[in-house]
Amino acid sequence: MLYGLLDLSFWGYVAVTLVMTHITIASVTIYLHRHQAHRALDLHPAVSHFFRFWLWLATGMVTREWVAVHRKHHARCETPEDPHSPQVLGINKVLWEGAELYKAEAAKPETLDKYSHGTPNDWMERHIYSPYNGRGILLMFLIDLLLFGMPGITVWAVQMMWIPFFAAGVINGIGHWWGYRNYETEDASTNIVPWGVLIGGEELHNNHHAYASSAKFSTKWWEFDVGWLYIRLLSALGLARVKKVPPKPVLVPGKEKVDVDTLSAIITNRLQVMAQYAHNVVQRVYRDELRKADGGYRGALKRAKALMVREESLLGEEGRQRLQNALNISQSLQTVYEYRQRLQAIWMQRTASQENLLQSLQEWCRQAEATGIRALVDFSRNLRRYSLQPA
What we know:
Blueprint: H1 10-37, E1 41-43, H2 45-58, H3 63-75, H4 86-89, H5 91-106, H6 109-115, H7 123-129, H8 133-148, H9 151-173, E2 195-196, H10 205-210, E3 224-225, H11 226-236, E4 240-242, E5 250-251, H12 260-268, H13 270-292, H14 295-303, H15 317-329, H16 331-347, H17 354-370, H18 374-383, E6 386-387
């Protein structure tokens, strides 16, 4: 029989396919990623089980395996132990063979033993979902065939390819290779686009790596995370409870004393602090220096623009040399770059006492304001206003 129970137009089949793949996307980002892997939210048992059942049908993925591989990715990001880093394995390998890399890592007992804690281990998981994960895919094929007839084969094929390509390939590959970065994390994560619709918000990958335990991936007003929209709807219905979102800096007008509260607020919001430093200090001084530079130096400055705010551990030898060439041109740029490194070093002091950290921050502000560099002075004075207390 050519057609199944539902005889749809061409665009009808397209719409159904998009809806079904989008349910799968929502299941991956809300259930597997934000709920199971990072515990950023709690889900009502009925919602949680629906997502698990749907993933069994649409992907055959086992919760325990997916969570373990993803947690290891965060724990060993951009190292040879990372299951799917394009910085290590190359972009083509991860983009086109991401699903195979996932399967290879999921087959390692040591990965499952170390990183899968807290995942479902009920009767359905032990007797249906895990041992018969391939049966779900077969059942979905039969359902598509029954509902749509021969066109259902195409619907099913698109369903089966969507997550392996977009999640395992695009997000794990391009999401660590190309895009824009709001935060200079120690990994190479990027935001591919500011509108996380295609894969449920997962395109905002740099934001996620900056705040891995956050249920919300968008951090700028112009970014849209559709997964977060669904979470808010579930929360409004009493079917989800958000546990954590990115911290928001509190700035107290008139606050001038650098105290323990200031220190704690800056450490809590350190990624936003460094992003503000890059925008309000480094880029501001860069523009001033670029205007003053003659033709011989302008090229060197332009080639190093992005490197001036890049996480230092991500700079290769060539990048370091280009950066140094640019800093040698301008004493002001050299100064603000050094102060950037010094500020970051304050919260990197793992063994320092709170008193020593506070003294380091107070000294940083005093010396920064003594440089006379307007952008640095303004930033330091604004830094004094940071607080954990409501304004």
